[in-house]
Amino acid sequence: MPGNPRRMARYITTTLTYVNAVPHIGYAVEVLQADVLARAWRLAGEEVFSLIGTDEHGQKILQASEKADQEVQAYVDHNAEEVRSLVKALELSNDHFVRTTEAHHIQAAQEMWRRCDAKGDIYKKSYTGLYCVGCEAYKTEKEIENGHCTVHPALVPEEITEENYFFRLSNYEAALIEYLSRPESVIPEWRREEALNFVKGGLEDFSISRDKSRLSWGVPVPGDESQVMYVWFDALTGYLSALGWPEDAEGKFAKFWEEGTTLQMGGKDQVRFQSIMWQAMLMSADIKQTDQVFYHGFINSGGQRMSKSLGNVISPYELVEKYGTEATRYLLLRHVHPVDDSDVTWERLDEWYTANLVNGLGNLVARVMKLAEQYLETPVTRPEPSPFPEEYWNRIHSFSFNESIDAIWALIQSIDERIARDEPFKVVKANKEEGVRVIRELVLEVYHIARLLNPFMPGTSDVIKAAVLENKKPDNLFPRL
Q1: What DSSP assignment string belongs to 308-370?
Q2: Residue 453 maps to which CATH number?
Q3: Can you tell me the distance from the alpha carbon of 476 to that of 481, in angstroms, rounded to the nearest whole number?
Q4: pLDDT in tens, the chain (481 residues)
Q5: What CATH number is associated with residue 150?
Q6: What gap in Å lies between CA 208 and CA 205, rounded to an integer?
Q7: Alpha-carbon distance values, 33 to 38, 291, 363 (Å)
Q8: Global pTM?
Q9: Contact yes or no for 444/383 (Cβ under 8 A)
Q10: Which residues constitute the domain of residue 14?
Q11: With 27 labelled, which of 15, 55, 241, 270 sits at a CA distance of 20 to 30 A?
Q12: Taking a C-beta distance cutoff of 8 angstroms, is the pair 51, 12 a contact?
């Protein structure tokens, strides 16, 4: 199909979100971006496996459950259901939902440990270091500024001495440099350079276990019941366990990971974990590295990072409640930059919703379909499926979700301009045959827009296409606030 990507098996996963709190707006952006890609690939005839899941072990979760006065398993069960609720609220099309407390995942994490151990990449030693609870990681000197963690500046890392198992990350410095030197390994380019420079600066082995007396909530280390796995070593393996690894009884791991193309989505604070630590673990276990990792930016509000204490947090559930699912998808995909930090406020959201959905797409569909309902004796014939324009695919595959929607809205504007210029509502009264011809063309253009909207606003796409084929003006797509 000209202009469409080459058919292949594609695997896409978002970060397994940490369930120490309900899902936030940044996570909603990430899963929506992944959903657009998965839907677009399916439209192109690709075989897709799309993963969403939850990371449910670690110190932060144990502390959060204690603060909430809940048993930890009940706590993670509740928050995992919150993530599932968001999946439903955003109408995501994922193929699987993995939880790291599932029995199969625990077995997979332990198998990953055994393979890295058999390679000689795991050893035990006593260690004293500065530990950031926010990162759930020991921090190096270059990750500490003025006594605070650079990722969690409000937290003071605690000096801890204990005997842990370590992973020989230093063994993979050369291999990681080779991997990260591939232009396609990380998007955007400056995140790849960030990872590459981190590796070239020298790698230290990292702790991959915690003493069970200090942290009981984790996957037991094979052969040593006194230790549990470091949460990241456990959670990252979820990308494989979700495919049925290591048994691979259904062949999904072979099809989508080994033989397919793999893509991981994550926030910009994930670079060290996703593109360095995880890739080294895969190398150690003799598993193919991730083909590509895409990192998105953060969302601020009113020039400040969202914080409960500042009262500027915007919940994805609040967005859906106020604007609806389809409008929420639009707002987060068009008006949040794919890779740069974005600033979002309720005032701006209201403005975007009213200008572009109520007065833009919604008004256009209502105007055209009212004319069609009034003057067309029969519906237009369903157009034969045709290839999408090459630039349409290029924008999506380059993660330019905002530019993709910009292009669709440029078409909406051009149709509005044509209506203003040609005045079909007047033409059809003076020359019915000519007026009907113009109206039919406008209806087909609206149908084309509906097709282009499919990966971004699938529900709206379906409603518009149904209205066209029924020759009926739909109910108000986007009510006024």
Answers
A1: TTTT----HHHHHHHH-HHHHHHHHHHSS-SSS-EE--HHHHHHHIIIIIIIIIIHHHHHHHH
A2: 1.10.730.10
A3: 12
A4: 334 445 689 999 999 999 988 888 999 999 999 999 999 999 999 999 999 999 999 988 999 999 999 999 999 999 999 999 999 999 999 999 999 999 999 999 999 999 999 999 999 998 877 877 766 667 776 677 777 787 777 777 888 778 999 999 999 999 999 999 999 999 999 999 999 999 999 999 999 999 998 889 999 999 999 999 999 999 999 999 999 999 999 999 999 999 999 999 999 999 999 999 999 999 999 999 999 999 999 998 888 777 655 667 789 999 999 999 999 999 999 999 999 999 999 999 999 999 999 999 999 999 999 999 999 999 999 988 888 889 999 999 999 999 999 999 999 999 999 999 999 999 999 999 999 999 999 999 999 999 999 999 999 999 999 999 999 999 999 999 9
A5: 3.40.50.620
A6: 9
A7: 9, 18, 26
A8: 0.91
A9: yes
A10: 9-296
A11: 241
A12: yes
For residue 477, the number of C-alpha atoms closer than 13 Å in the C-beta half-sphere is 32
Rg of the chain in Å (alpha carbons):
25
Residues 39 and 113 both lie in one domain: yes
| 50 and 174, same domain (yes or no) | yes
E-assigned strand segments in 381-449: none
| C-alpha of 51 from chain center | 10
Are both 238 and 385 inside the same structural domain?
no
Same domain, 200 and 274: yes
Same domain, 282 and 360: no
Contact by Cβ (8 Å): 446, 415: yes
- Domain presence at residue 164: yes
How is the chain split among helix, strand and coil, in percent rounded to 5? Answer: 50, 15, 30
Q: Tokens 């677009």 map to which residue?
A: 40
Q: Which of the listed residues 296, 331, 366 is the one where a domain comes to its end?
A: 296
Query: 130 and 209: one domain?
Result: yes
